[in-house]
Amino acid sequence: MIATSFTFIDPILARFIGMIAPELQISNQWITFGFINVILIALSIIDRNNRKAKWVYPSLLLLYLIIEIPIYFDLTGLNWWQSFADWFASI
Fold first, then answer.
1. What is the pLDDT of residue 91?
2. DSSP letter at 78?
3. Domain locations along the chain
4. What is the C-alpha to C-alpha distance for residues 2 and 4, in angstroms, rounded to an integer?
5. CA nearest to 32, candidates 57, 54, 64
6. Which one, of 42, 22, 27, 8, lies nearest residue 72 by Cα?
7. Is 24 helix (H, G, I), strand (E, B) or coil?
8. What is the pLDDT along the chain (91 residues), one digit of tens a residue?
9. Are 17 and 25 in contact, with CB atoms under 8 Å apart?
């Protein structure tokens, strides 16, 4: 349930940063994705003593990083990424 709220953090925080600091030199994606990653790391540390949900947050962090890496390094225009995006959209 917590992970579904992460979909709202990125657009809300990006717009908020754009209103407060429009001249910011760093991309809003770096800030918003970093914020989500920090939340996932904190939740992983907090939840590490719970045996039932031990790998939920670390696996979610890994999934987010796999998706974020092409965006961080501006690889989304490459053919392999476009093929993957088309395949994913068709599921």
1. 92
2. S
3. 2-90
4. 5
5. 64
6. 27
7. coil
8. 777 787 888 888 888 988 888 888 777 888 888 888 888 888 888 877 777 766 777 888 888 888 888 877 778 888 988 898 899 999 9
9. no
